[in-house]
Amino acid sequence: MSQGRRLSGRNIAALAADGFEKVELVIPLRALQLAGAKVDIVSLRRGRIRGVNLHLPASRIGVDKVVTEADSDAYDGLLLPGGFINPDLLRQSAPAREFVRAFDHAAKPIATLCHGPWLLASAGLLTGRTLTSWPGIRDDLVNAGATWLDRELVRDRNLVTSRGPQDMRAFLPAILDVFADSTDQSPTVTNHNGSDPQLDTPLGWAVAALRWSPKPSAAALASAAAAALASPLRRRVSLKN
Fold first, then answer.
1. What are the pLDDT digits (tens) for 218-231?
2. Active-site residue identified among 55, 105, 115, 192
3. Band of the pLDDT at 83, cuts 50, 70, 90?
4. Of 26, 121, 219, 241, which residue is 20 to 30 A from 149 by alpha carbon distance?
5. Which Pfam families match (predicted)?
6. 205 within some domain
7. How confident is the model over 9-21, as pLDDT tens digits?
8. Do the domain assignments include residue 187?
C-alpha cells in the first residue's frame, strides 16, 4: 500500500457537537480522508452542526450518524476535536460518554486536542493517564487523575493528545500513525516527573485574536435573546397542556 493511502480500509469516527473548533475537525478530517480513511461525523443530533473559530460562528458540517445509533465496533479509531462549547455539550451526554468508553475499553486509538479531553474526564478515563490539552483545562484533567504535560504532542498507549491548533503540524502525522497502526501503543513522552505547572498567563495569541473580534450584530443579539426566552415559554405551554 502506498504511504499516501495507508489508511485505506480504516473507518474513523469523529465525535463532535455544535461549537466544535472548525480547524480541529476539518483539517484532521481532510488529512484522514486523503490517507484513504472513511470518516463518519457522529453527533448528538441529525442535520448540520455549527463550527466556531474561537468564539465566532463558522461553517457547518453534515452529521452522518447520531451517537445513539453509532456502533463503536464499526470503527477503528476515534477523533475528538476541541473548541470549548463542543466538548462541554458532549460531556453532558450519557451516550457520548459511553461511546468514548467503548473505544478506550477496546484499546482503540483516540486522538484529541484542545478542550477535547474534557469528555475523557467526564467518561472517567483519565486516572493514571498522561496527556496534554488546552492549558486552561489543565486543572480539570489533573483533578480527574491525569498527569498533564505542556507539550505539543503526548502519546500514552491508545491516547494521542495535543494542546490546540498551534500544534497541528505535530498532531496530524501522529494521528495518521496511530490510526494506521493501532497495535503500537508506545508512549512518546517518558522523561517526566508529575504534571507540568499551571501557566501564569493566558496564551497571548488567543487573547490577541479575541481582542480583534468584531462586535455582535443586532440580529445576533436578538437571536440570542429569542433563544433564551424560548425555553421558559415552552415550559409554560407544557404546564398548561
1. 665 566 566 667 65
2. 115
3. very high
4. 26
5. DJ-1_PfpI
6. no
7. 999 999 999 999 9
8. no
Residue with cell 493566558: 202
Gap between the Cα atoms of 16 and 63, Å rounded: 9
Do 179 and 108 form a contact (C-beta atoms < 8 A)? Answer: no
Contact assessment for residue 89 and residue 115, using Cβ atoms and an 8 Å cutoff: no
Nearest-angstrom CA–CA distance, 170 and 167:
6
What does 88-110 look like in DSSP terms, one character per residue?
Answer: HHHTT-HHHHHHHHHHHHTT--E
DSSP state of 5: G
For range 100-106, the mean pLDDT: 98
Domain that holds residue 16: 11-180
Question: Residue with C-alpha cell 495507508?
Answer: 6
Q: What is the CATH number of the domain that holds 120?
A: 3.40.50.880
Catalytic (active site) residue 55: no
The domain total for the chain is 1
